[in-house]
Structure formats: structure tokens, C-alpha cells
Amino acid sequence: MQKAITNDKTAAGNERAFLAVIRHAEGTSAADGYSIRFGGARFSGFADHPRIATQFTDGAGRRLWTSAAGAYQFMAVSPIPGGGSTKVNTWDRIKAKLRLPDFSPASQDAAALELIREAGALADVRAGRFAEAITKVKGIWASMPGAGYAQPEKSLATLASVFKRSGGVMA
Asked: How is residue 54 annotated by DSSP?
């Protein structure tokens, strides 16, 4: 039987540790991770999502466009060179829902926690049910084990280690 974690301090610590897991998986765990676009390029200023589309080839050989940016690689509708725009718009939806003022680290953290909540995983994160939380959020972040986006995925063991090193307490 799993122990229940009811301590608010532990729950908040688990939230912070889980956010660190996502940043590690997405390759944005460095000090400047909140200002990284997909592929590693940096952007400046946190007034809004940078809205810059980047083309890449996924593991299945498809040429795709992404506007992923920030510590949690949020997507926003962005113009594609030569015409058109990206389609996925996670950032603007969450920004409006939470009435976030900008794309600052605090806003990015709040938006990531909201995505975790929407996936039904926030209670699992807070309680330290790490594997259950990962399973519920794997469709949001391509780097999660089992995400299935034809992009590199981190192992559950690697992410569990990051969670613990970041102060997370597993149930």
C-alpha cells in the first residue's frame, strides 16, 4: 500500500520537483531555460511567447513546424516563413484561462501546473505518485516516456532520479 502524502509543504515541493522533471526532459533545465526555443535558440524578453516557428524533422522523417518555447516548450500560433502558421496554441489558451500577464518564469510555471491539472495529474504529483503522473502528462510533453511523438523520450528511471534530486518525495 502506498503511503499518503498530506503535508502541504511536501505537496508544494513535489510540484516544484515535477516542474524540474519536465524542464530536464525538455532540455530547458539550465538557468536560461525559460528563454529557450525548440532546438536550443534563445529569445529575449518575457512580454509574450516569442511566436517564432522552427522547422524540424521528427524521428519518423516528417518535416514539421513548431513554435515551442520556454521552460515547458509551450506552443503558440506563429507565422511560418513562406506563408501559413503553426496550428497548436497551448500558450494562448492557458494564458487567457489563468489571466497570465506575460511569459515570465512565474507565468510559465503557473501554466505548466495548469496543464498538469487539466491532465488529471496534479493530485498524483502532490501525493508523490510519480509514475501515475508521468503517464497522465505524457501526451503533453513529447520527451516523456511513452509520449509517442517520434521524438527522443527520457526514461522513467531517469526522470524519477531528477524528481528525487529536486526534492520530490515519492509515495
From this structure: E
* Average pLDDT for the chain: 94
Q: Architecture of 8-165 per CATH? A: Orthogonal Bundle (1.10)
Alpha-carbon distance of 21 to 17, in angstroms, equals 6
Task: Convert the pLDDT of each residue in 56-88 to its tens digit.
Answer: 998 899 899 999 999 999 999 999 988 889 988
Q: How far apart are CA 69 and CA 75, in angstroms?
A: 7
How far apart, in whole angstroms, are the C-alpha atoms of residue 64 and residue 51?
16
Across the chain, which has 171 residues, the per-10-residue mean pLDDT values are 62 96 97 96 96 92 94 95 90 98 98 98 97 97 93 95 97 93
Task: Tell me, yes or no, if 15 is annotated catalytic.
Answer: no
The one-character DSSP state at 36 is: B
Candidate list 15, 26, 132, 153, residue with the active-site label: 26
